């Protein structure tokens, strides 16, 4: 079965950087999409960045130019490099996966989810 385990969250000051990691396993296909979502208290879950094995990457407008999604296939790890952090980036961040390409930023496309990692940015 597909398993996703996130790490790398923590507390950082504004304009700082953090890198999230998501180790994945159990995919039954070499064609898949993976994404990072986040949810702040009292807000809906939001797609942050996504990529697929076909080369597509997508970002929500609020993180373009600051966040970078990437993967190391040899290490079965998805990353989210977050630079120039802002207090509004504070949220629980989730790694998600789906079989098939497309890299959507909509959560209902993703059947597989990690447990989440907290990111807190102070001003």
Briefly, what is this?
The protein is 0% helix and 52% strand. It has 123 residues and is mainly β.
Describe the structure.
The chain starts with a strand and ends with a strand. The relative contact order is 0.33. Helices cover 0% and strands 52% of the residues. The strands form two sheets. Strands 2, 4, 5, 6, 9, 10 and 11 form a seven-stranded mixed β-sheet that branches. A four-stranded antiparallel β-sheet has the order 1-3-8-7, with no helix packed on it. It is globular. It has 123 residues and is mainly beta. The chain has no helices and eleven strands.
Q: Which key terms come to mind for this protein?
A:
single chain; 123 residues; mainly beta; seven-stranded mixed beta sheet; four-stranded antiparallel beta sheet
- Alpha-beta content class: mainly beta
* Unreliable stretches: none
- On the 0-100 scale, what is the average pLDDT? 96
* Mass-distribution shape: globular
Proportion of residues in helical segments: under 10%
- Give the strand tally: 11
The separation of the N and C termini measures 40 Å
Rg, alpha carbons: 13 Å
Biggest sheet descriptor: 7 strands, mixed
Q: What is the H/E string? A: EEEEEEEEEEE
Number of alpha- plus pi-helical segments: 0
The percent range for strand residues is over 45%
Present the secondary structure layout.
Blueprint lengths: L2 E5 L2 E4 L4 E8 L6 E8 L6 E7 L4 E3 L7 E6 L4 E6 L8 E9 L12 E2 L3 E6 L1
């Amino acid at each position: 079965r597909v398993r996703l385990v996130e790490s790398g969250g923590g507390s950082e000051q504004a304009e700082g950087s953090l890198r999230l990691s998501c180790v994945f396993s159990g995919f039954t296909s070499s064609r898949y999409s993976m994404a990072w979502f986040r949810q702040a208290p009292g807000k809906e879950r939001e797609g942050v960045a996504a990529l697929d094995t076909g080369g597509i990457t997508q970002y929500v407008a609020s993180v373009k130019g600051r966040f970078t999604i990437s993967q190391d296939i040899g290490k079965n790890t998805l990353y989210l490099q977050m630079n120039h952090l802002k207090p509004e980036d504070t949220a629980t961040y989730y790694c998600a996966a789906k079989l098939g390409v497309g890299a959507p930023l909509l959560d209902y496309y993703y059947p597989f989810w990690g447990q989440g990692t907290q990111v807190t940015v102070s001003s």
